[in-house]
Amino acid sequence: MASPQSTTASSLTSTDNPESPSSMIAISTDDINIHDKNDQSKKFKFFPHIFSCCGHQQLIYLKRLNSLDIIYAIGSFIAVLGCAWQLIDVSRIYFAYDTNVNVMFERETKVEIPAITICMDLFKVANDEYIEENYSNQLKHFAENKVNKYSAYKKLFQNLTLYELLNNATYSSEKVFNKCRIIKPIAIENNETDDYINCTFISPIHESLTDVKKCFSIGLQLNNQSDDYFYIDHDMTIRDNGFPLYQISLFNKYIESPMILMHSRSIPFLGFIGGQTNVFRVNNTRSSFQLFNYFKTINDLLEPPFKTDCRRYEEIGYKSLMHCMNRCKSNFFIRNFNGQHGDVPTDNSFDLNMYFAPSKFKENKTLDKIMSNECLTTCSKRQECHSEFYTMSMMDDFERKPMQNRYEFDVYFSSTANTHYKHQPRMELVEFICFYASTISLWFGFSIIAFSRSVLHIIHQNALAKRNSSVSTTKNDKSVTILPGRRYSQTVEMSYHISKAALEIDLKKPETEQRVQEKK
Questions:
Q1: Domain 98-125+170-264+277-298+389-425: which topology?
Q2: Which end of the chain has a smaller Cβ tally under 10 Å, C or N?
Q3: d(CA 329, CA 419)
């Protein structure tokens, strides 16, 4: 006969009457133990599911390893080392922040107008009428005036303020230029019938000076003008490039061996001190008309943390590194020598109520080193992120004929493709992530689908465990409060679980005993 299964439960009953039935609150200790065991058996195990993503779940459940398991474990360890080596190596490549340089040869489909600066001797462009009217008495005291008036002008200009030199004592662009024309840009292409317009329609001619030169810059975009005023609808890959971009004519009497420089329209003329040394000096006494061509080089760098370490100087109010250095050196001279640096091109944006500092200071290399090191705190050594360089070449030269009082030159479209140096990361972030993921998958068979399944399973199992825990706590963890002045009785409740076979045997037992007695 099968043995019956039984459980016992003790209960505390609160009653005010000792004779009243005692059945109010029951605490089942066995039920608590049973639920605890069920919760422990259902508790989610994290590591087996993580190992199952990579095919190593058998290592968790094995109680004793055989030879194949040992070989498998050694192979897994080697896989971990190989994966770590590859990940470290690719991390070293990525976090070195090296760059690759892509060299591209590009032909412009829309031609960008470059800026042109023409510099001439400061004393040659002196306003004779104004000087004679206002400074004739001072000139008489100069011995140089009897030999060479330009030598006298040089001595006079040392005693004139920058404002007087820039705006009164020298001729303006209206006096020096005979004409300045440029191909009409996109902004007015449909509004003008003529193919060429005056240069000042795009931007005013920008005037600046040093202690020996006066310069005129054409085509600068220093303010917030629309880019459409500085682009020409001309596809250089299919169009005829035999049209001049610029047509410029100067009166010969005001110039002597002028210097012509082409540079980016977004950066003002910085002079030799600003690194703009790629100039073309012309002999206007021999030539009356010249044709020029140019080609452009573009350089794009990357900001930190990449090794090119470029800087956007627009964020601190400058156009480029050398624009910042020019301003810093100018301020250094003003603070220490009460005058402007003689090599810094000075325009109306500067304080012009001062003089040029003596030239001996600008020629002192030791002083220039001290000054440059001081300016590093403001400007640093970092190159600008985008820079453009132009190189001019002469196509043709026409000798001067008698009675020709002008010097003219035309600048034609570039006949060669632009050279574009573009720095790009040696390894992009998306490449770095993909390499990491593919390396882990290569060594361990890891997949996003398996990992997602494990994560969802973790969330699901944790939710089930919390729900079961809350249900068992509500059902079994009931507290009993013992109040003073009351009587409590304890009863034991018995419950039996009897199998069907045992029940049938117990029911047949009385009949069997009765038959035995009758036979006797």
A1: Acid-sensing ion channels like fold (2.60.470)
A2: C
A3: 32
